[in-house]
Design brief:
CATH superfamily: P-loop containing nucleotide triphosphate hydrolases
Largest sheet: 5 strands, parallel
Strand content: 5-15%
Strand order of the largest sheet: 2-3-1-4-5
Order of helices and strands: EHEHHEHHEHHEH
Mean pLDDT: 88
Structural class: alpha/beta
Helix content: 40-55%
Number of helices: 8
CATH class: Alpha Beta
Distance between the termini: 24 Å
CATH topology: Rossmann fold
């Protein structure tokens, strides 16, 4: 693959999607051709998975999410990467190792059904202190059953911490950012600074190479 895959994960209500949008703008401004995507996907199947998550649980939901991810890889992510585009994912394997584990699914099962999923060139995990996450969630409003109470936020933060060594074993290049005191734009700049050197897109308007410090 000539184009990068960058994933961004983090607790529900943190402001992750806003940070992803800001990161897409920052990447484009630095010379990348960017394609943003989300998991589950926005395809009819991915939309059905999102809707089913209100009632579907455990291994059934984990299988549905994995199926959508593998289909998304073949039909969307890999074609864009093959064209040299940087793909920026809003949720990837870190979210699976948190939300599906919170649903009672064991790690070995999750790794088995997600075999073949591409390892990102950079996997970002956003975090914040629990009170900050709860305040942001209160402003945004709950959207699914994983966001119903403060205990869920604390559990998500703990599971993200537990996901780190698992992802390390899978060869993920991880970068954790505490967003407690950061704006979306500041978070985007922190992500941009962690992008691997080989990600620099040489197709700038002037045709010259760009380098990150």
């Amino acid at each position: 693959m000539s184009g990068l895959l960058i994933s961004v994960d983090g607790p529900s209500g943190l402001g992750k999607s806003t940070a992803v949008a800001a990161t897409a703008r920052a990447l484009a401004a630095s010379g990348h051709t960017v394609h943003t995507a989300t998991g589950p996907s926005t395809t009819p199947y991915g939309t059905a998975v999102r809707q089913a998550a209100a009632t579907m649980r455990g291994r059934a939901l984990a299988l549905a999410v994995a199926a959508d991810r593998l289909h998304q890889l073949d039909t969307d992510i890999r074609p864009h990467r093959a064209a040299g585009t940087t793909v920026l994912m809003d949720r990837w394997m870190a979210s699976t190792l948190v939300l599906q584990r919170a649903d009672g699914v064991d790690v070995d099962f999750l790794l088995t059904i997600n075999q073949g999923a591409d390892v990102p060139d950079l996997a970002v995990i956003l975090t914040a202190d629990p009170d900050t996450v709860q305040r942001r969630l209160a402003v945004r409003g709950t959207r699914h059953r994983f966001e119903l109470d403060s205990a869920a936020t604390a559990r998500e933060l703990r599971l993200y911490t537990e996901a780190v060594p698992i992802l390390n074993r899978l060869g993920y290049r991880l970068h954790t950012i505490d967003t407690t005191h950061l704006t979306a734009e500041q978070t985007a700049q922190a992500i941009l600074g962690a992008v691997p050197d080989r990600a620099i897109n040489t197709k700038t308007p002037q045709g010259s190479e760009r380098e990150h410090e």
